[in-house]
């Protein structure tokens, strides 16, 4: 398995419980498909977006560091695309 960095932006209008639940479900996608989440970073938090995405002008940024294979990546991509609370996501290889 390779190390990846996953960044996603959640809708800003979620309350803390709904945001935590969405983050847990997204991390569970990785772990349920054989991956391992090493770190979850919420330090960027709520930010203004450079341009509106799905009529939203603010978003909550989350960065995950994870060990995954292609099965976990494909399933994460599939489920995030249909998740209404995720505005955008990006997965890149972590070379550190």
Question: Could you list some keywords that capture this structure?
Answer:
96 residues; 2 helices; globular
Distance between the termini: 14 Å
The major pleated sheet works out as: 4 strands, antiparallel
Instruction: Give the CA-based shape.
Output: globular
Unreliable stretches? none
The secondary-structure class comes to alpha+beta
Radius of gyration: 13 Å
Strand order of the largest sheet: 2-3-1-4
Total DSSP E strands: 4
Helix content: 25-40%
Write down the overall mean pLDDT: 95
**H-E order:** EHEEHE
Task: Provide structural commentary.
30% of the residues lie in helices and 51% in strands. The model has no long low-confidence stretch (mean pLDDT 95). α1 (16-32) packs antiparallel against α2. It is globular. It has helices spanning 16-32, 70-81; strands at 2-11, 36-53, 56-68, 86-93. It contains two helices and four strands. It has a four-stranded antiparallel sheet with strand order 2-3-1-4, with helices on one face. A hairpin with a 2-residue loop joins β2 (36-53) and β3. By secondary structure, it is of the alpha+beta class. The longest helix is centred in the N-terminal third of the chain and has 17 residues, at 16-32. It starts with a strand and ends with a strand. The relative contact order is 0.34.
